[in-house]
Amino acid sequence: MDNFAFYSPTYFAFGHGAEAQAGSLVRRFGGSRVLIHYGGGSAVRSGLIDRVKSSLEASGIPYTLLGGVKPNPRSGLVYEGIDLCRRERVDFVLAVGGGSAIDSAKAITAGAVYDGDFWDFYSGKPIENALPVGTILTIAAAGSEGSPDSVITLEDGMLKRGATGDAIRPRFSILNPALTQTLPPYQTACGITDIMAHLYERYLTNTPDVEVTDRLIEALLLTMIHEGPRVMADPDNYQARSNIMWAGMMAHNNSCGVGRTQDWNSHNIEHELSAKYDCAHGAGLAVTLPAVFTYVMEHDVMRFAQVAVRVWGCQMDFAHPEVTARAGIEALRAFLISLGMPRNLADLGADPADIPELVRVLCRGNGRNGAISGFVTLTEEDCANIYRLMV
Amino acid sequence: MDNFAFYSPTYFAFGHGAEAQAGSLVRRFGGSRVLIHYGGGSAVRSGLIDRVKSSLEASGIPYTLLGGVKPNPRSGLVYEGIDLCRRERVDFVLAVGGGSAIDSAKAITAGAVYDGDFWDFYSGKPIENALPVGTILTIAAAGSEGSPDSVITLEDGMLKRGATGDAIRPRFSILNPALTQTLPPYQTACGITDIMAHLYERYLTNTPDVEVTDRLIEALLLTMIHEGPRVMADPDNYQARSNIMWAGMMAHNNSCGVGRTQDWNSHNIEHELSAKYDCAHGAGLAVTLPAVFTYVMEHDVMRFAQVAVRVWGCQMDFAHPEVTARAGIEALRAFLISLGMPRNLADLGADPADIPELVRVLCRGNGRNGAISGFVTLTEEDCANIYRLMV
Q1: What is the fold of A185-389?
Q2: Which tens digits make up the pLDDT trace of B336-361?
Q3: Which residues of B are less than 8 Å from A222 in CB distance?
Q4: Cβ–Cβ contacts within 10 Å for residue B133, how many?
Q5: CA separation, residue B36 to residues A181, B98, B134 (Å)
Q6: Subunit contact A216:B14, Cβ cutoff 8 A
Q7: Which CATH number fits domain B11-179: 3.40.1260.20, 3.40.50.2300, 3.40.50.1970, 3.30.565.10?
């Protein structure tokens, strides 16, 4: 196990009606003027935004609103939010929504206290200061409710890039599984896929002797395999939603990823798909993960055999571990398809003729120099081969 | 899953030489005058206390020392520490040691800012304020490095009782697995037992539909089963020590215990043993756990069968699940004995003739009225029967 620091100071309020705590939690964590940042109309139509407003009013906290966050959140709205925070002297940003609203809110909090262009943070500059941010989660997926990460798409060039820093970790996150019951099945499935991807990205490590984090990751994958089909068959199942929601947070606050190298190449490869085709991130991952794993499997066959046996219940082929390893990857693929996820680039609306351009932006954009590093360092040729496996 | 709040804001610095960060971490978390609180001579002899002093000096932080914490830490030293903190205007307590030093330090931090008797907190009064506390852990066991809990023994009557509150959660904890390499094998085994007990206490729940936390608990138990024998065979194994150390923290910061009722009757029953006979808490638990589980198994046979199959690798006897459930309990017992743990009351130096007195203090002491509640509510007769199973 490698040396590490772990710090996850977010306060989690979990359960039925937890959004009623919004006002008292903003107060507890030092907010006095709030920007409520949210996405489309569903948070309004469901009455959630009204309940949040009522909770803030009951605590005597003035607020201003900025809606309109889209999936794969864009830089334009971030600039708007930064201006609004400064103009209204906002001192706390409350994101209401999924990973997109939360990531956009995090970008706003970092940008609002920074003299330069907030995109600097998405080009490698460490985030050291930010306004405090809280979240009310409406989809279990991105894990942004407990993470120090944010991913934003720069409209100029459609570059999708991430930033990180403890300063943008939510001070509190409100997790009410009932808020996710009205999600369309496709979005629920995208969320399940994203959570499983966060687990696999941590599982693919080159650090030896990491039994405790291996086992924790496997535990969360087993949870998703158990609860995923249950929630797809019965979207109102509060208990299945609850297990998925906590697993989604635990999958990404890094308690199961400490002390080990991680991969994240599947995310990098997928980001080009959702940036260019505006497909759902989870849908892009469903196509990406099996392709990447098939391509890199030989790098550590026993690791893929381990997850196949421990998580997917495959029989170990002791004479041919690669058979077991491959069976685990195919079990993942079949599971994602069973949730209704796409199978290939065509299902995502992507054109194989674009592969050279996808590879160029992936491996040459934003300061990269021809390869992406992770579990296996992937050259431009490797990345092209992986995209071709998705055809 | 039940509604819950989860808050674990401790900063963890993990790895080789992490104790060198003591000074900068005290500074980061607001300390300017430190009480270093520790146990016996081993922390001094090993040079650890000197390294901690050097780190504080390098950060320009004055300190005072209070050693002498014993296993099953006593109220007397807590009163002494409270006086010392007030006299020296200490604003940060740094515990160096295991659960005893940390629990004693937590009691001091709560008592130092309270006008009444600190024992009030161990008699049910919530802890709302405390000086900040940090820890440098030297044994993976109690999980106090990441928990809001403290257990102290009142010398007047030898009552062993717990207190809890977010105010006594450590601001930071330094976890260097190498510091645990010099532990005597018996203490290492006691620590492993204590960690497994924290997991079982959470596993025994009456809350249905808690797949995610079931799986997380199982993951940590599997880790202990893998790493325990490895570290007993090779005490210098840094990697095995690392996996155990992180599992010990995760077992008790409650990330795997949220949203579910928990048991804690095994701890209650054991506390009378270590309070009366001053045996190691882990050793007492090794005798207690199989007895309690055997006694309460019928309350939920399938739960015991589940842990038997998923954790201990038992074959499921579908016609007779109680056979599987019992096999899992026996596997636990055999595992603990294989680590060198005691088998019965005699091994602990306890006298079966004392059982009526143990039961009286357990079920009637400190405001209890004849029973202890948990996974199963246990009457005085039940508790006596359980102690008799340990003979």
Answers
A1: Dehydroquinate synthase-like, alpha domain (1.20.1090)
A2: 999 999 999 999 999 999 999 999 99
A3: 215
A4: 30
A5: 51, 13, 10
A6: no
A7: 3.40.50.1970
